[in-house]
């Protein structure tokens, strides 16, 4: 099969880690006889350098022509980079928010998986980490408190700020369907997280999620209040498969979940719209402090490419193979600096990519 993939190499370590992900995708093509046609797209600082703005209509239009987009990371060092002398709406990060909005990427997926080989980096107690965990947080990305009307005013001489948390049933239904679809490809469990004991928006959330659940009789649905979920994530993370939640709760919980894996260089993510299309990127930033030094861990980007195979291209077998190759390299004792431990062999960005590609 032939697939069109947009590639945003981005800034900092972006080009280095994307190069390794492409190396692995090339190995997938060879093994499974697919053809990927790549289109380079400019975003963030790289786009500012060429066009003076972090995102152009050309990038959006070309991205729309692709089956999926793979991205490194964007941004630079805020203290030294000239990009940060520009007004906020012209800086690299504005390009990322802009492309998410332009492509209507409302569903943000962040897996948090604890590799046995990396357990030493997990900050949880040994008896908890021994069980391992493999969860996926599905966060609504384009609604809720971050997108509602807001104002700051003086009422009777008192400074007052107001933010609005609003969801309509359509916004809830589409993200819930995504979560159930993905649960069907995993362990068939969805835990919907809300604050339905207090918030009207959460009560509607719960109702609509229950309606959607009726179409997925094989999936077990549970509900949890967000404060309890924050505790459960550190007490018993093994209980979770798919966590479905709204924008702000998801923002906070996904950071908590990613931290308990202990390794920022390993965490992938995907942002999806109503179609199969998605933007796939590591959860970390552009790490300008180590850019160009062959020190960056490319695994988060390689695992993001695996998510792309699974969710946008429906290539489950190929995605499994990439994930297995990553596990094998860790088992064989190879580590980049960020995940290095005693008795392992330290490798650079390029060698890590090559080792994973070889194991395919
Ligand atoms: P960062 O994630 O880039 O770096 C934090 C620390 O983690 C650094 O010490 C870095 O060296 C290390 N690190 C990150 N990724 C690594 C990897 N793959 N391998 C080894 N070490 C890694 O966060 P930051 O320093 O706060 O931000 C740097 C820039 O990235 C900023 O401009 C920020 O706005 C941008 N950013 C972009 C994205 C994105 O593109 N989606 C996300 C977050 C931050």
From TrEMBL:
Provide the protein's localization.
Cytoplasm
Enzymatic class: oxidoreductase
Signal peptide start-end: none
One GO cellular-component annotation of the UniProt record comes to: cytosol
Please provide the Gene Ontology terms (biological process) for this protein: L-leucine biosynthetic process
Tell whether Ribosomal protein is among the UniProt keywords.
no
SUPFAM superfamilies from the entry?
Isocitrate/Isopropylmalate dehydrogenase-like
Q: From which residue to which does any coiled coil extend? A: none
Q: Which residues form the Isopropylmalate dehydrogenase-like domain?
A: 4-356
Residues annotated for substrate binding in this entry = 100, 110, 139, 227
Question: Which cofactors go with this protein?
Answer: Mg(2+); Mn(2+)
Family matches, as SMART domains: Iso_dh (SM01329)
- Record note on cofactor: Binds 1 Mg(2+) or Mn(2+) ion per subunit.
Q: In which pathway does it act?
A: Amino-acid biosynthesis; L-leucine biosynthesis; L-leucine from 3-methyl-2-oxobutanoate: step 3/4
Which of this chain's residues are annotated to bind NAD(+)? 285-297
Q: Keyword annotations for this protein?
A: Amino-acid biosynthesis, Branched-chain amino acid biosynthesis, Cytoplasm, Leucine biosynthesis, Magnesium, Manganese, Metal-binding, NAD, Oxidoreductase
Q: What is its EC number?
A: 1.1.1.85
Keyword Thylakoid assigned to the entry: answer is no
Q: What do we know about how this protein assembles, alone or with others?
A: Homodimer.
Family of this protein: Belongs to the isocitrate and isopropylmalate dehydrogenases family. LeuB type 1 subfamily.
List the HAMAP family hit by this protein, alphabetically.
LeuB_type1
Which PANTHER family does the entry link to? Answer: 3-ISOPROPYLMALATE DEHYDROGENASE
Q: What is this protein called?
A: 3-isopropylmalate dehydrogenase
Q: What's the gene?
A: leuB
């Amino acid at each position: 099969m032939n697939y069109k993939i947009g590639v945003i190499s981005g800034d900092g370590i972006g080009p280095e880690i994307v190069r390794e992900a492409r190396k692995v995708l090339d190995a997938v093509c060879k093994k499974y006889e697919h053809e990927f046609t790549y289109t380079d797209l400019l975003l963030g600082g790289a786009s500012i350098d060429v066009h003076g703005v972090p995102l152009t209509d050309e990038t959006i239009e070309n991205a729309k022509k692709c089956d999926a987009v793979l991205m490194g990371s964007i941004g630079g060092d805020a203290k030294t980079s000239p990009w940060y002398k520009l007004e906020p709406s012209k800086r690299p990060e504005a390009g990322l928010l802009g492309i998410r909005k332009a492509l209507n990427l409302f569903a943000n997926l962040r897996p948090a998986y604890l590799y046995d080989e990396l357990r030493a980096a997990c900050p949880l107690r040994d008896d908890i980490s021994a069980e391992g965990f493999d969860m996926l947080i599905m966060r609504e990305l384009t609604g809720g408190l971050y997108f509602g009307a807001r104002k700051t005013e003086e009422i009777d001489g008192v400074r007052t700020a107001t933010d609005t948390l609003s969801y309509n049933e359509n916004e809830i239904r589409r993200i819930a369907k995504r979560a159930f679809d993905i649960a069907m490809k995993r362990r068939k469990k969805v835990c919907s997280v809300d604050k339905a004991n207090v918030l009207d928006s959460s009560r509607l959330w719960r109702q609509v999620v229950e309606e959607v659940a009726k179409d997925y009789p094989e999936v077990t649905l549970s509900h949890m209040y967000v404060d309890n979920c924050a505790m459960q994530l550190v007490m018993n993370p093994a209980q979770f498969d798919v966590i479905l939640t709204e924008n702000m709760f998801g923002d906070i919980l996904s950071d908590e979940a990613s931290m308990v894996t202990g390794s920022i260089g390993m965490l992938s993510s995907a942002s999806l719209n109503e179609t199969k299309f998605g933007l796939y990127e590591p959860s970390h930033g552009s790490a300008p402090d180590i850019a160009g030094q062959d020190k960056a861990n490319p695994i988060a980007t390689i695992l993001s490419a695996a998510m792309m195979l699974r969710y946008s291209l429906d290539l489950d077998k190929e995605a499994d193979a990439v994930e297995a190759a990553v596990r094998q390299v860790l088992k064989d004792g190879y580590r980049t600096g960020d995940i290095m431990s005693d008795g392992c062999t330290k490798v650079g960005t390029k060698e890590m990519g090559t080792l994973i590609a070889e194991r395919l």
